[in-house]
Amino acid sequence: MGLDASIIHLIMRRKELRVRADFQSAEATIGANAKSLADIGVDETMAFRRLQRRAVVREAGPGMFYFDEDAWQALRAMRIRMALLLLAALGLVGLLGIYAASAIQ
């Protein structure tokens, strides 16, 4: 992943955290407390839509949304697992490279 992609990734995570904070401030974290986006103070940004596609932001009724903390924690755990797997794969490739270089000599 290049530097530009890393920066974009970090910006998106930050925006998702902002969406989460807005829902928490509005106390819209369970279906019974679902509110309109105007009441929450959230626009339908890319970060909002990403969280909605991942079932973190849920629609309890027409135009009424809430933030599912359990889904958020599951998404975070999955992202951490993916990052760890990527690091492990890169480490393995590095070790294989070192082994191959030493075997050639």
Write down the oligomeric state.
Answer: single chain
Count of the domains: 1
State the helical fraction. 55-70%
Element pattern in H and E: HHHEEH
What does the radius of gyration come to?
A: 19 Å
Please report the number of helical segments. Answer: 4
Outline the biggest β-sheet: 2 strands, antiparallel
| Unreliable spans | none
- Helix and strand content put the structural class at mainly alpha
Q: Give the strand line-up of the largest sheet.
A: 1-2
Q: What is the tally of beta strands?
A: 2
Q: What form results from the Cα inertia axes?
A: elongated
In terms of DSSP E residues, the strand content is 5-15%
Determine the mean pLDDT.
92
Q: Measure the end-to-end span.
A: 31 Å
Overview of the molecule:
A hairpin with a 2-residue loop joins strand 1 and strand 2 (64-67). The model has no long low-confidence stretch (mean pLDDT 92). The chain starts with a helix and ends with a helix. The protein is 68% helix and 9% strand. A two-stranded antiparallel sheet has the order 1-2. The chain has one domain (3-104). The chain has helices at residues 3-25, 37-40, 46-53, 69-104; strands spanning 57-61, 64-67. The protein has four helices and two strands. It has 105 residues and is mostly helical.
